[in-house]
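Retry 2 of 3 after timeout on previous attempt. Resubmitting structure tokens to design endpoint.
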């Protein structure tokens, strides 16, 4: 970002500077409560400009987060860098975002139960594809892919074998799901 002295003057005129511990609210254009400013031909978030001007560097892969939880605040002493995950965690700790506690079968939207997911993990271990598993359990391929990638049903333990063993090394184990289907009937 190329910031000129004129840009700095426009930035400084767009908020009310207060004491070190106070919020400095943005007075100009906002989007979702966050200040906006055109710099170097692009519309930028005022918090990112504030952080850059005060601290001198700003990685593209980091969010500028607020310790004060005031989106219009541009006080650099209230700003910190974090990953999207850290920002979400901060929001949950401060009760700005709900913590989802209904995991797995306790979630009213869940189609699968713990046993189904154990079967999915077994089939993944045996080398079955997401499409085959999804068709048998009447769920989307994305659901199976999320289980495979540990983005869903992460509260269930994952056998080490699912991750480390290859299809050819899989043991010959017979199993049956709640509908009486076996691995070979898929």
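Retry 2 succeeded. Sequence:
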């Amino acid at each position: 970002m190329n910031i000129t002295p004129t840009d700095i003057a426009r930035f400084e005129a767009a908020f009310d500077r207060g004491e070190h511990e106070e919020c400095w609210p943005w007075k100009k254009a906002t989007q979702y409560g966050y200040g906006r400013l055109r710099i170097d031909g692009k519309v930028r978030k005022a918090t990112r400009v504030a952080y850059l001007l005060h601290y001198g560097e700003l990685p593209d892969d980091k969010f500028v987060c607020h310790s004060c939880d005031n989106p219009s605040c541009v006080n650099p002493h209230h700003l910190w860098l974090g990953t999207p995950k850290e920002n979400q965690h901060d929001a949950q700790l401060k009760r700005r975002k709900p913590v989802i506690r209904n995991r797995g079968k306790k979630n009213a939207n869940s189609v699968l139960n713990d046993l189904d997911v154990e079967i999915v993990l077994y089939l993944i271990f045996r080398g079955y594809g997401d499409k085959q598993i999804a068709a048998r359990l009447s769920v989307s391929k994305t659901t199976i892919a999320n289980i495979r990638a540990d983005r869903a049903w992460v509260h269930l333990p994952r056998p080490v074998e699912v991750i480390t063993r290859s299809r050819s090394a899989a043991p010959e184990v017979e199993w049956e799901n709640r509908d009486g289907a076996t691995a070979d009937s898929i």
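Attempt log closed. Residues 104-185 form one domain.
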